[in-house]
Amino acid sequence: MRDWIMGFMGKYSVGILLTFVLLASVMLYAFPAVSIITGTKGITRDNFFLTRVAIWGVFLLIFLYSLFIEKESFLLKKESPYPIAFYIKTIFYLYLICCIGGAVLNVMIQLLIQEKVSDKFLELNFIFKNDYFLIIFTSFTAGTVEEFLMRGYIQPRIERIYNSPLAGILVSAILFGILHSTYGTISQVVIPFFIGVAFAMFYKLYSNIKILIICHFMIDFISLMAMNFIDIKQLSVF
């Protein structure tokens, strides 16, 4: 029995490590790899689109790992159903918590170190201008893949390994923050960590990944749409 349990813990650990390494690799090396394949230098609309496709590839690989190596459900936590009113209310409150908390943290960071706008954001800003398909696809990719992998896959497996809900919440949030460090600013680690904690706590309490996907999509979609109408340097103030 002990060997069987240790076998599952080992498979969970490998799956968690594989998820993080693959996502980090896509974040760091997808652009250079796509540029070599396409022969196009710099950040272009098509290159960026292909990097989002690569993120879906990571999701597929981890799904197959859970199916054929772990040999159990991708989502260890069974989805809990709720009425539509609960969805609307919860998404609204989660969105407010993330926006207000993120804004407060951003102001604190600006007051402490006067951090500049991420150079990567400045580079990406122009490719989203009036490209509504790319905005929707990017937001949908982030909302779906990141929630399935960070909250749906990693969090409950960390919880099982350490027999600790707190470990599941904190480790998944820390990894979520680290993955966003590729943007090159402190705020892009601290704020995602805060959002990761809020989302992980919700997932532990309510076991509903769909609400998190919708809320994550809204955060990214509204932010990217705002970039169409507000100068990104002004947007960073908020």
Task: Write down the overall mean pLDDT.
Answer: 89
Order of helices and strands: HHHHHHHHH
Whole-number count of domains:
1
Instruction: Tally the helices.
Output: 9
Main beta sheet strand tally, sense and closure: none
* Class by SSE composition: mainly alpha
Tell me the distance between the termini.
54 Å
Please provide the count of β strands.
Answer: 0
Which overall shape is indicated by the principal axes computed on the Cα atoms? globular
Return residue spans where pLDDT drops below 50 for at least 5 consecutive residues: 1-6
Spatial extent as radius of gyration = 18 Å
What is the helical fraction, as a range of percent? over 70%
**Percent in strands:** under 5%
Structure description:
The protein is mainly α. The chain has one domain (2-73, 82-235). The protein has helices at 2-38, 45-70, 84-113, 119-125, 132-162, 165-179, 187-206, 209-229, 232-235. Helix 1 runs antiparallel to helix 5 (132-162), helix 3 packs across helix 8 (209-229) and helix 5 (132-162) runs antiparallel to helix 8 (209-229). The longest helix has 37 residues, at 2-38.
Secondary-structure topology with pairs:
Elements: H1 2-38, H2 45-70, H3 84-113, H4 119-125, H5 132-162, H6 165-179, H7 187-206, H8 209-229, H9 232-235
Helix pairs in contact: 1-2, 1-5, 2-5, 3-7, 3-8, 5-6, 5-7, 5-8, 6-7
